[in-house]
Design brief:
Shape: globular
Number of helices: 4
Strand content: 15-25%
Mean pLDDT: 83
Strand order of the largest sheet: 1-2-3-4-5
Structural class: alpha/beta
Distance between the termini: 45 Å
Order of helices and strands: EHEHEHEHE
Length: 137
């Protein structure tokens, strides 16, 4: 698949069959990605392997209903995007009520010094006593 070199925004929510090959084709100027499946048809194709192919300095990421975006993927993203990531949304990225995110992946986001917004819905393995949220006034 040919790379989309000048693309800055990519949104493909409600796309349960979109795979890692699409992530591989996204260009190096990309800043924002919103990708995912449906409440009754999860995306089981986007995974750590696809995330490892991203080469752009992403600032905004949104994953909805992606069953394979879990702890390892978030740790990889926080390492790769520590200086650029500003917003991260992880919406219902689990399957059959088994959460894929834990405190460890959220703690890895401490490396992201520009992170301003973290939206996490329905990740039942988080222990809020470990999470400290601060913001500038």
């Amino acid at each position: 698949m040919k790379a989309l070199e000048d693309l800055e925004d990519f949104a493909a929510l409600r796309s349960p069959h979109l795979g890692n090959d699409v992530l591989e084709a996204l260009g190096s100027k990309l800043k924002r990605i919103a990708i995912g499946g449906l409440p009754d048809d999860y995306n089981e194709c986007i995974s750590l392997e696809g995330i490892e192919t991203l080469t752009s300095p992403l600032t905004h990421l949104r994953f909805e209903y992606c069953t394979k975006v879990g702890d390892q993927a978030i740790k990889e993203l926080s390492s790769r995007l520590s200086s650029t990531l500003m917003e991260l949304a992880i919406i219902r990225n689990f399957y059959e009520k088994v959460a894929k995110l834990s405190d460890e992946s959220i703690k890895s986001l401490l490396n992201c010094k520009n992170l301003r917004k973290l939206e996490d819905r329905k990740s039942t393995r988080l222990n809020s006593s470990h999470l400290v949220i601060s913001y500038a006034v």
